[in-house]
Design brief:
368 residues, alpha+beta, seven-stranded antiparallel β-sheet, 10 helices, 29% helix
Amino acid sequence: MTDTPGGELLFAVDPLVIESTADGLVVSSPRLRTRLHVQPRVAELLLAARDGVPADGGGAAAGAVARLARDGFLVPKEDTAAAPGIPWDAWGVTAWSLHSQTRDTPFVGSRSDDREHLAEVLAEIESRPRPSAVRAPRSDRVLLLPRVRTRMDAPYRDILELRRTHRDFADEPITLDAFSDMLHYCFAPLRFADAGPMGVLQLRAAASGGARHETEAFVFALNVTGVRPGLYHYDPVRHGLEPVAPDAGRADLEHLTYRQGFFEHAAFGVLTAAVAHRMSWKYRHPRAYKLLLQNVGHVAQVFSMTATALGLGAALTGAIRDSEADGLLGLDQPAEFTTFALACGVPLRGPDGMPLSVRTPQEPPPSF
């Protein structure tokens, strides 16, 4: 930092983030590496410093001003115009706050050397009511799907090489068996495990931190043989569809995903939703939110790979009108919330077998 004569003013770094946490107030900025735990009076000083504070601290605040200036939170006026570094200049303080609050979270695993601390952690978890691993049925009306196991004989290497994002689908139905297998392998338990005080855990194809499997599937049947169009909740244990909104369809999905065209001809779509209490019951730190988002990424990858193995195409998007989607699905906000949108159908391919939206380079670009 540039030396500043005592008579000059210092200003709060811009952007400045002040957060109230369980451990008190924390100040940070995407322009700085340091996060400071501060007293309320120091946070008030920083807020006042948006209009400038004397560099000498003006008496009683001298020590706080010197510390804040040393750590980069108070800077000369000309330095406040500097932009945050990449990528925070584009993503802004919301992303920065999530990033900074989920770093360096203490971890206590089942193989921890500190057995006494592990016992305390387990006792604290067990002191709270354990959430159900499955969503309670809303009614006894359920469309039970066939429990089929379609043969998938393509070598795994071929599946890896053939997986592509398909945004263009033929206006054709998919079979009930293929639809049933997609839901089973992507969202249903394949086995169960007895985890003692953690309860009976679902073992699904998609990885999930602590096998919490907080992701639920809300399915829009659009062109599936033997299934009436509409919005359903997928019951992973009964392997069936619970009616949610019989009139919901393509127009709703297109609106909720900003009219990207994925669902204009898709055979079915899925909005995934998080039942966050399943995760927070065991993991009581903010990093769990990051894990929750990673978990739905695992689900989306299984969805895409399974579609490829069945000769179908899939598209994924996180561009969602969140509040409207939460309302349509009937989620218990804010504890439950929409996380991803998935499309599946019969893919349209170009002459080279690639998705229509993929253009193969005919010659290297000048900068290649």
